[in-house]
Specification:
about 350 residues; four-stranded parallel sheet; 2 domains; Rossmann fold; about 45% helix
C-alpha cells in the first residue's frame, strides 16, 4: 500500500494548486467526550482550523479551485448561496486573498440578518446581490445569467454553479486529506477507524481515497445535512477526478469511478431541511462545547455529531474502533443561530 500512497501523493501534487490553508490540521484526542460516550477513543480532525476567514474544509477545496482559476485566467467569480453559507464566506475570502473580484447572488431565506457568514461577507466588501428567490435552481440560473452579462462586457467569469471542476477540486482536496489522516493514524498507532463526516464532496474524496488505497480498516459514515445530498452524479464526478491522473496510475486501479455501493450514507439526521437545526443537533453542539470547548456548525457538523452520539448510544460503533470526527468548520453560524441555543 505504501507504493500507492506515494503514487497518489505524486499525482495530486502535479495538479495546479495555490497554497493558503494551514496544513496539516490537528487530530485532537477528546478524553472527556470519549468517556461520556463510552468509546474506546474519540479524535476530532480540526479542519475548522485551516485558516482563512474562520477556516473550514472548503479552504482545502479552494486551493485547487484557485489553481485552476489562475491557470485559465478567469478574472471574475460568480457564486450563488444563502447568507448562512460557509461556502460563500470562504469563496469571498479566497477571492480577496487572490485579488479577483467576487459576486455572490444571495438567496432570500428565513434569516438575512447581518450576522455570522453574512456579516463577514459584508465586511470583506464583496459584491452581494440580494435575490428575491429561495429556490436553488432559480438562484443558480440568476448566477449563470449574471456571468453571461459579464462575458458580454469582455470579462471571463468563473460561475461556480456552472463549473464541473468545482466538485472535482473538492474531491481532490480530500484525497489529499486522506493521505494526511492516514499519516496521523499511523503515528498514533490507530488500527481500526470509524470516521463520521457531514456528507458532501469532501466525503466523496475520503471514500474515493479509501477505495484507491484499499483502506479496509476505515469505516466512513456520511451524515446528510439535507434530504437529497448535493452530489448529483457520483460516478461522473469521481470518474472525471480519476481521469486527471496519469494513465499509468489510473490503469493500476480496478475501477473507473466511485459507486453508490461504496458509500455509507445516513440521511436520518437532516431534520426538516437544510439549515434548519434539530433538537439533537443543538444538544450535540452544547455537549461538545461543555466537554471539550470545541464549537460546531448548526448546519453541517452539529447534525453529523448528533449522528455520532446516536450511534454511540445505540452501540452501533465497534468497541475496538477509534472514532474520528471530521470538523469541517462553519463556526460563524453559531452566532446566526444564537436564539436556538437560548431556547433549549
Amino acid at each position: 500500500m505504501n507504493g500507492m500512497i506515494e503514487e497518489l501523493n505524486y499525482q495530486i501534487n502535479k495538479i495546479d494548486r495555490i497554497n493558503f490553508a494551514n496544513l496539516p490540521t490537528p487530530l485532537e484526542y477528546c478524553h472527556n467526550l470519549s468517556e461520556h460516550l463510552n468509546l474506546k477513543e474519540l479524535f476530532i480532525k480540526r479542519d475548522d482550523l485551516t485558516g482563512l476567514a474562520f477556516g473550514g474544509n472548503k479552504v482545502r477545496h479552494l486551493e485547487f479551485r484557485f489553481g485552476y482559476i489562475k491557470k485559465h485566467k478567469f478574472n471574475h467569480i460568480v457564486n450563488a448561496n444563502m447568507g448562512i453559507s460557509n461556502n460563500a464566506r470562504l469563496w469571498s475570502a479566497a477571492s480577496v486573498l487572490n485579488n479577483i473580484p467576487f459576486t455572490n447572488i444571495m438567496s432570500k431565506e428565513l434569516d438575512t440578518s447581518l450576522q455570522g457568514n453574512h456579516l463577514l461577507n459584508y465586511l470583506m466588501d464583496i459584491n452581494i446581490i440580494y435575490s428575491k428567490t429561495s429556490n436553488e435552481e432559480i438562484l443558480h440560473n440568476e448566477a449563470i445569467r449574471y456571468g453571461e452579462n459579464l462575458k458580454s462586457k469582455g470579462l471571463k467569469p468563473y460561475v461556480t454553479v456552472n463549473e464541473k471542476y468545482n466538485e472535482i477540486a473538492a474531491i481532490l482536496s480530500y484525497l489529499n486529506t486522506a493521505l494526511e489522516l492516514n499519516k496521523q493514524f499511523i503515528n498514533l498507532g490507530l488500527k481500526k477507524i470509524h470516521i463520521f463526516q457531514a456528507s458532501g464532496s469532501s466525503y466523496l474524496g475520503l471514500c474515493l481515497a479509501k477505495k484507491i488505497l484499499n483502506l479496509s480498516h476505515w469505516t466512513i459514515t456520511g451524515i446528510g445535512p439535507r434530504l437529497q445530498p448535493r452530489m448529483r452524479n457520483i460516478r461522473g464526478i469521481t470518474n472525471s477526478t480519476i481521469k486527471l491522473f496519469e494513465k499509468t496510475f489510473s490503469n493500476k486501479l480496478n475501477f473507473e469511478y466511485l459507486d453508490y455501493k461504496d458509500l455509507d450514507w445516513d440521511l436520518r439526521f437532516y431534520g426538516e431541511g437544510y439549515g434548519v437545526s434539530t433538537t439533537y443537533s443543538v444538544e450535540a453542539i452544547k455537549l461538545l462545547a461543555e466537554k471539550e470547548a470545541i464549537f460546531l456548525d448548526p448546519v453541517y457538523t452539529g447534525k453529523a455529531m448528533s449522528a455520532l452520539i446516536h450511534y454511540a448510544n445505540q452501540n452501533k460503533i465497534n468497541k475496538d474502533s477509534s472514532v474520528v470526527f471530521i470538523h469541517s468548520g462553519g463556526i460563524p453560524n453559531v452566532f446566526t443561530y444564537a436564539n436556538e441555543f437560548n431556547n433549549n
